[in-house]
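UBA domain-containing protein (Aristolochia fimbriata), 412 aa
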Amino acid sequence: MGLKNNAKILASRVSVDQGKAIQDEAERNKRLARIRAAAVAMTKRHAAGTLPVEDFNLELEDQSGKKVQLGSETDQRGVMMGLMLHGNAKQLIRNQQYKDALDVLAMGEEAFSLCDPEVIEMIDNVPILQIDTVWCYFLLRDISWLSMAGVRLAKARDGLERSHGKDSARVRLLQAGRHPELAIYLRLELLEGVVAYHSGLFEQSRKALTSAQAKYLQLQVLDEALSLLMSMGYKERAAKRALRMTNQNVESAVAFLVEEKEREAQRHEEDLKQRKEIMEQKKYGMTPMKKAVNLQRLNELVSIGFEKSLAAEALRRNENDTQKALDDLTNTETNSKIQVYIDSKKRNRQRKALDAAIEEFISVGFERSQVVTALQASETKEEALNLLVSNQVMNPPQNVMQLLRLTLTILV
């Protein structure tokens, strides 16, 4: 501001409400910055293969149900960040924080804009993000956004028609499988009707709102059918969704719910498999460019006879380049150096584990020399503990509670 350390400052008290507003705005900006930073961090972790499956699992399908392979790393990061930010924005909308939601939606739109347009066309979240943005305009009741609302709704309709066809004949469940697409078109047409009305296009507004009303009625569920499904043990939300997706046919709804349960079990199995793969990748470390070892390429090298740990280290050193890794593995001198490095790492891990175990036993009163002897004579910490206790080499009796806690920890 141009003030120097010897300047005199005249301060006057302003409105308390104005000061509070300034503080609220500063806090809001910090919160938005944290959301963006979290999305960026999670995207980088997932790209590196270190993000737990339960945190984020990116699986995209086209309208025929086939999995879609994303293009470049930039596309993958852009899509992941866009999806995360869109998810955060929807949570803010549910919490009625519409202004904050608009800012986060803008961040999501920016993230999607980094991706190849052909990739974006396959993702329903992009047009839905436009609808959510206009929904916030609508709920904030700010007519100044009216012209922009029309542009966004046109983009949303164009995006949905590219994905589902102009007649919506290829309607499937949305990517996350939570809402029928019919509800998306209902919300789109409702907003189109409102925008057309405020733009003076009354006939266009009437058509849009009439179509939205028809879709709304189509989404209603018969009480008798709902009660019947709930009597079978299904939750209300799942039962309603199944009836909507099967045009109120109870028999088809039951088949749909059974199929959904099977799909959920399959997804859970795939998640466990992916979690196992991520844990395995962590074991091999990161490449110089901070990427995880490619397990598919690792399995290819193992299938032709190379030891897994050796092949993993070769891939790690060569940024997952299979040919360069193969050259290192078939070169006697390089192969020997990699093996020495692996053995050294293994010894270091064993030494650290032994030192940690020694300190753990010493903390409850055992003597160091006896602890070292017991651990060297045992294969597990539990065997070492049994050996120490049976030899009655424990020092002061006041450490009995610590010993019990140690025993429970080892057993668990």
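The chain has a mean pLDDT of 76. The two ends are 60 Å apart (CA to CA). ok done for today
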